Amino acid sequence: MVSGTNSQESAAVDNGGADDNNPNGAREEKMKVVVRVRPLQAKEESWPKAATDIDVHGPDTSAPATITLQENEVMWEKNGQLKILKADAVFVNGATQDRVYLSVAECVDALIAGFDCSVFVYGQTGTGKTYTMSGLQRDETTDNEVLDPTPASHGVVPRSIKRLFAEIEREKRGAAGASFSVYCSFIEIYNEKIYDILSLEAPANGKGSQSPDAKTIAANNGSFTQRARWNSTVSAKEAKNLQIRQKLDGSVFVDGMTSRSVSNDAELLQAFREVLIS
């Protein structure tokens, strides 16, 4: 998981810290790296393991690799060679969703203050990226992805949404007549092409979105495309291939991207659930 903030927009923040090297008072910070290790799956339980719960051996018993996790580093050793990865935080398999969220929560606060922020996860398939960000996890008995409704299982995105709207409500109470407009968009970058996921959500009959539990989304023609096969569905991919444009001020935007207005955290969470299962 990687997070960071970097913005030249300062109108919505306190510029008291501005200096000659940073005249706009923009907040800049180093990229933060957080490592999370998921528990072993059932098929991995037979792999040789060390005596402690933070030393894990790979499946190759002839030349096992040992990974040792410490508070701020990951040590990888194989064939006598040692590599050390430094990180801002390392979470073992017992770490809660809340603890992981708190490690990047300052990005949400910076966003509210007017800074551009980004939190993204990186890793191999099956390492827990989707669960960390959403709370969605695979049921090994059915091989389906399910969303645990309990708040304790919510990932970074649902927690950030709730934090954002809690701050909006606080601002409304503190400033009579204050109003806020919130819009959401969901895109997928696949093979260097950009696809508008929300544009595939609304059926042509206008009756609204389908339940995310059905694991389907409605295409523009009213037919349904299985979300589990969406990446390989040519007709769905051809629905809308968006282009990145640049404004005169140098900022970039996705031309033609669908935006949905949401008035509370429940509406935004519902939109997130609709496009979540892929």
Give the overall shape: globular
Average pLDDT level: 73
Instruction: Kindly state the percentage of residues in helix.
Output: 10-25%
Can you write the helix and strand succession as a string? EEEEEEEHHEHEEHEEEEEHEEEH
Which structural category fits the helices and strands?
Answer: alpha+beta
Unreliable spans are: 4-20, 50-56, 201-237
Strand-residue fraction?
25-35%
The count of helical stretches stands at 6
Distance between the amino and carboxyl termini: 20 Å
Q: What value does the Rg take, in angstroms?
A: 22 Å
Number of strands: 18
Across the major sheet, the strand order is 7-2-1-8
Main sheet: strands, sense, barrel: 4 strands, mixed
Explain briefly what this protein structure is.
The protein has helices at 97-102, 105-112, 129-134, 156-174, 234-237, 265-276, and strands at residues 2-5, 32-36, 55-57, 66-70, 73-78, 81-86, 89-91, 117-120, 136-139, 144-147, 182-184, 187-190, 193-196, 216-218, 224-226, 241-246, 252-255, 260-262. It has 278 residues and is α+β, with helices and mostly antiparallel strands. The two termini are 20 Å apart.
Structure description:
The protein has 278 residues and is of the alpha+beta class. The chain contains six helices and 18 strands. Among the domains are: 40-91, no CATH class; 181-262, no CATH class. It has a four-stranded mixed sheet with strand order 7-2-1-8, covered by helices on one side. Helix 2 (105-112) runs parallel beside helix 4. The longest helix is centred in the middle third of the chain and has 19 residues, at 156-174. The chain is globular, with a radius of gyration of 22 Å.
